[in-house]
Fold:
Amino acid sequence: MRNGIPNLGALQAFEATARLGSFSRAAEELSLTHSAVYRQVTGLEERLGVELLTRVRRRVAVTSAGAEYAARVRHILEQLEKDTLGVMSRSGMGRSLHVAVLPTLATTWLVPRLPDFQRQHGDVTVSLSVRTLPFQFNDHPFDAAIYHAEQIWPKTRGIKLFDEDELLPVCSTSVLAAVADPTDPMAGLTHLHMSSRPDAWRQWYSAQNKEYAPSISAGPRYELFTMILAAAKAGMGVGLVPRFLVQDELDSGGLVMPVTTGLRVRAAYFFSHPAAIEPSEALLAFEAWLKGITHAPKKERE
Structure:
């Protein structure tokens, strides 16, 4: 140690063990032996005089002090990685970006389009991490973020990518075929809910001037739209999904709308980065590319 700062290897070993819940898995991730990781973590605890992990046979659990310390160490390691990549970029070894993005938007919309950016900017590496909630850039090692909101985040600058427009009720053809009353196809259907939008179905029923029965709230809840899409395709019920995510399934007949009315929404998808930090050439290139693909005609964008 130097001036009370633990050895970097010990911090990496502890953070990986706390995150993965296993010395063996941490050893595999760090390309070390089980005993080496164990010694590093044990030595760190002895130096700090604090129990960070509890060990019961083969199981490892993080103490309250350990959980707090692990979170701080994780942040520092992520920031160190970002700073290292920044130095590499300035030395001509390539340029890199670390972007926070919503998981469903990343897998269904952004990642399939990234090869186009790579063809245009082959020296820029774009890394993605999932974030579903707003955050402060000062507390996370991200260069930018793509997120869902009603307006751009405070203290950031960037662009609106596109409006969400509306959420559509969708289900499988088998679910629709089993509807008992064709005049009221939503009656009796299991409603699939999005955890981050708990009032979406209530708002949909209100917009249709229909009663929101208590039984509607009893449906399962999912964290991601991809989960709702998968559940709907599996015949588990009807879900509310953004049109741009489900349009291909509707066009192919993989999913259908039991009714033709959707829920209009005011929110949109934005890309922004800290206003207090001068954006790099790589970041500006990525922003320009996003603007190009999202400000094209709507059908082309979808």
User: Anything to note?
Assistant: Residues 90-94, 298-302 have pLDDT under 50 and may be disordered. The chain has twelve helices and twelve strands. Residues 166-264 form a domain with the D-Maltodextrin-Binding Protein; domain 2 fold (CATH 3.40.190.10). Residues 135 and 153 are 9 Å apart (CA to CA).
